[in-house]
Amino acid sequence: MSIGRRSIATATARLSVLVAALSVPAFTGVWELVARSGIVNTVLFPPPSTVAVAVLEWIRSGQFFADLMASLARVAGGFAIGAAGGIVLGILTGRFRLVSSLLSPLFHILRPIPPIAFVPIVILWFGLSETGKLFLVVWGVFFTVWLATHIGVQKVDRGLIRAAQMLGTPQPQMLWEIVLLGALPYITVGLRTAVSISFYTLVAAELAGAFAGIVYRIEIAQQNMQTGQVMGGLAALGLLSFVADRSFAILAERTVWWR
Amino acid sequence: MTPSLLRPDQPLRLVDTYPPSAPARQAIIRVEDLSIVFDAPSGQVIAVDRVSLAVAQGEFVSIVGPSGCGKSTLLNAMAGLEQPFEGQVLMAGEAMLAPRSEIGMVFQQPHLFPWKSVRRNIAHGPRALGKPKAEALRIADDLIEMIGLTRFASAYPHTLSGGMQQRVAIARALANQPSVLLMDEPFGALDAQTRAVMQDNLLELRERINATIVFVTHDIDEAILLSDRVLIMSAGPGRILKDLQVSLPRPRSSAIVAEAACLALKRDCLDLIRSEGRRAFEQMEIKT
Ligand SMILES: Nc1ncnc2c1ncn2[C@@H]1O[C@H](COP(=O)(O)OP(=O)(O)O)[C@@H](O)[C@H]1O
Ligand SMILES: [Mg+2]
Question: Does B119 touch chain A (CB under 8 A)?
Fold first, then answer.
């Protein structure tokens, strides 16, 4: 009886692997059929084959690579600056009471404002320049990383800090080795959240006006009623942020190397 | 049968020397009227109450008392990790206002840096004091050999047992060649067997290094086995009740705790603790 139950369990497991593998092709197939059946307007709802053709054209024209680079530069640059700032200030506010009293109230007021709400003022300040776009991504990333670091620093085992003090550890080494590494498990969680935030803010930044970029391309295609290109752009954006999140997760597992 | 380590011709003495009479010979540590108060949610807690003591150069002094009586706080004050509310702590004549690297500390928990290998943990102190890397690692390797963990030099702390971690913590504290070693229930978290081995290791170590040791424990056997002098603390607020000389011959080994003479010494200690404890308790009742 138990053998029978086990073999049923195995069969179910195999079946679900098969279904999972078929999920996307099946969905694409149904979409293709529906779009071609004439039930829907193919201009607004093009079949996957049309999307694929649009994407291939996008790549062949060389624009895809330019758009990808433009978007990646904004995301990566903004992430790096925002994360570095968040970690440095998080360590200072987490470690020094006075710095925390000075900055934490301000940060707690600014943090809940959705970064997208800053688009109008960013346009006033920076126009359509790259600086403005970078600013938006930095803004989104910074507060998340700052808060995670600030909390992480306060959770660092006090015993480790005392042990380091007893061994004569100088203040800079205390901050950038003991405190930073002690808080690292929290910081990596904050960084991972910040990866997806950097993509949200990228969308806002490019919609606000740009001259290249994946979201910019989506907007242009929309204005030209190139629905296939719009969908191709969405797929590219989804894939990009998926890859970024996955790679970061793998990286994060290695960052805390002593576990 | 291991030969008795106690020579019958040498009578055991239990001498009360508290409060400390003459200015103890070259006291390296002096605690003068030290009180330490914590702000707790329920109000102020007096953790240490007007404690005075002196520890001579090279002496091994144990502080015994029930948990919560302020032993760790007193030791932390000697380490410069806790500041006096009243009174002062003098190390070689200077007030302890911050931790100093010539004072080594072993905590109840090993508190090893989890991101560093055994070798790098031990080398941390010498590196922090600015020694070249090669020299720091050489110091570490010597200590690793001494604690018998050569095979584990590049292991990370979480892969070691509690006893091994505590040995690394002791080696790490020794790496800066401290003139004073403070130990806060270092064997408290270990099982009885490992504990006995560690006590023997410490006795042996003590013959080799020339450090003054202050050792906190709640175990009277352990205090008698290891020390030249045992200070007995009362339960909150922490005060020193008795200062007892342990004149057992050295070298000692953990086997002596089963000796009749040692048991007698222990019984006397326990009696002291009981009667003083009762008195303290009654005083407390009168007060409230
Ligand atoms: N940081 C602290 N804040 C508030 N109370 C404390 C603090 N540290 C210790 N205490 C209190 O001081 C007393 C003595 O504690 P401790 O020195 O750790 O005792 P022991 O080491 O003898 O067990 C206890 O009542 C404890 O609750
Ligand atoms: Mg304690």
Answer: no
